[in-house]
Amino acid sequence: MRGTVRKIRMAGLLMGICFLMVSMAGCGDAKVQVPETQSAENTTDTDGAAQTGNTDNTAPAADADNAAPADDAADADSADDSMPAGDTDDEDRVCLSILGDSISTFAGWIPENYAVYYPEDGELTDVSQTWWMMAVEEMEMELCVNGSSSGSTCAGDSLSPDDPMNGCSGYRISELSAQYGKTPDIIIVYMGTNDLLKSIPMGSNDGTKLVEAGKVKNFSDGYTLILDELESEYPAAQIYCCTLLPVGLWGADTEQFEVCVNGYGLTAADYSQRIRVIAGNRDIPVIDLSECGIRIDNLSEMTSDGVHPTPAGMKCIAETVVEAIQYTWDF
Fold first, then answer.
1. Model confidence over 19-69: pLDDT tens digits?
2. 200 exposed, middle or buried (CB, 10 Å; 0-12, 13-18, 19+)?
3. Which tens digits make up the pLDDT trace of 251-281?
4. Inside any domain, residue 37
5. Is residue 41 part of a domain?
6. Own/partner pairs for 13-18, CB < 8 Å, 24+ apart?
7. What are 278-302's pLDDT values in tens digits?
8. How far apart are CA 104 and CA 234, in angstroms?
């Protein structure tokens, strides 16, 4: 990391503390989690569970994150298919990269062959309404690369040379460095929602087990491999892992959003807990978006479809991210 970026202030954190409550203005309370070694035994293990068919509570066949499928990615953002150039003259700014899915996309701000969601779908109309742009501007950082692709999962083919749907691929990881030569100082991993919606098995990896390259078939292995590759490719970068927002499906009878339960009987809370375990065992800070103020009972206001945040929801995410990074990073 370049000399102008100051060191992470982690020395003052007590080893026995796992959570720190961060006061949030207008969006409820959020948590910054200080890493602590954990066990995956206390989380749901569905690796290898047999599932047949769908019920009313399973994720819908038409994935909410797939408004712009991979095959149509070029068309989805062809009107604005070049990433904005970074400010190469400002060497003092902290450089941020993001590994994400549709929640973090915006046309013209992601690699040109990645699938885009906003603003073609959802309620955002300007990039300034995205959580990551609000965070970048608030902390006066530089956006290195927004490596987010709609519909992508943590699991997938890690050896794929060009398919952005595979979050654990070396291809996705390698594209987090800027074309003009900069590498990120901070990397935010905000993925897992599509693993829930596509009923990717949880697996049993707690972040400490070796994952072989190739076809990764469960969420835990995929998430672990992502962190393995990030730490190898960007050893000087500080990684942050985000838990998931609540995910809801519209109840025809109740006429309100109900908790989404996938084909393995898992919810966003289950995937979030595994993220905490994996990150904790690797001493990686967790940004707890599950407590950013977006709840199952206010999804109608905070999301457009139970998954994708509205401008109000994006503000809650941004404020939580800013509070977490400012607490652990000396700007």
1. 333 333 345 444 556 555 454 544 444 333 333 333 343 333 334 444 333
2. buried
3. 888 889 999 999 999 999 999 999 999 999 9
4. no
5. no
6. 13/328, 18/280
7. 999 999 999 999 999 999 999 999 9
8. 21
The Cβ-side half-sphere exposure at 251, using a 13 Å CA radius, reads 15
**How does pLDDT run across 162-173, given as a tens digit for each residue?**
999 999 999 999
Structural domain span for residue 264: 60-85+99-328
Task: Give Cα separations from 25 to 128, 241, 254, 323 (angstroms).
Answer: 19, 22, 31, 11
Contacts of residue 11, defined as CB under 8 A and 6 or more positions apart, other chains included, come to none
CB 107 within 8 Å of CB 116: yes
| C-beta neighbour count of 3 within 10 angstroms | 6
Place of tokens 């929801």: 313
Number of domains in the chain: 1
Of 169, 53, 48, 25, the C-alpha closest to 111 is: 169
Beta carbons of 150 and 102 less than 8 angstroms apart:
yes
For residue 301, give the CATH number of its domain: 3.40.50.1110
Tell me whether strands 186-190 and 142-148 are parallel, antiparallel or unpaired.
unpaired
| Residue of 270, 265, 269, 271 whose CA lies nearest to 54 | 265
Instruction: Tell whether 16 is covered by a domain.
Output: no
Domain assignment of residue 288, yes or no: yes
